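Field reference: sequence -> structure
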Amino acid sequence: MSQEKKGFFSRLVAGLSKTRANIAAGIDSIFNGFSAIDDDFYEEIEETLILGDIGIHTTEAILEDLKRRVKEQKIKEPSQCRALLIDTIRSQMDVGENAYEFEKRKSVVLVIGVNGVGKTTSVGKLAGQLKDQGKKVLVAAADTFRAAAIEQLSEWAGRAGVELIAHQEGSDPAAVVYDAVSAAKARNTDVLICDTAGRLHNKKNLMEELKKINRVIEREYPDAYRETLVVLDGTTGQNALEQARQFKEVADITGIILTKLDGTAKGGIAVAIQAELGIPVKYIGVGEQMDDMQKFDPDEFVNALFDVQGQ
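Structure field:
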């Protein structure tokens, strides 16, 4: 594991401490407290996982898989189930081998999310990381309705060392995207990242706005690879899952950026989102610095959640 990876993993372990206290500590006391694998044993696991924000449907799927494995492997001791349970949770979270295809092609990445989830910050961090990979990156300030969003993105673009395309506050987001696409093509940009609005309380308007933006990209840049990422606040637990559901209704979501995992007891939501919606969590954030957002690694996440030392 590289030093940077190691540093992020230790921050992730620290960040998930409250979730770990919620889930892993509860699970361990079950494994140590039961002498037989019976209905009560499974019920206790179920309750602990649901309280850890892993969600009812996901918990059911995990338990079903766990019971199958216990039966197949003829396991009799509750303590032997710990590793099986960890593997079962891990298996719910496959990101898929094409998760980061947009990095390898000329692409347009739309980033959406409600106010306060860390959307603009995530755009800045993603831009910085892609630039560090040697990519030519352009950022578009298409969240034109939130006061100070343009200013905030301008600051992050400066930090990341990437160019920014912006209009006046309140201008048409699709017009910003049009200019940004023109600039991306003219400058031979590798990745254009568009910070877009996410006003879920007015879904009809949001849907129209996203349709308009998508039409502009399809018409002006049909060859571009498309990625649409939703930013969710990990501290909101089941609310984040509900937001993801609603965004899925208005846009073709290809991935999730899950922020603020440091210091939340609701980190189990990362498992629920992936398992219940079939949308992979692609990035997770555990702080404010540029490298505090990293690609999501299911193995690392589950290791950090259960404090298992990674290989």
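Note: The chain has 13 helices and eight strands.
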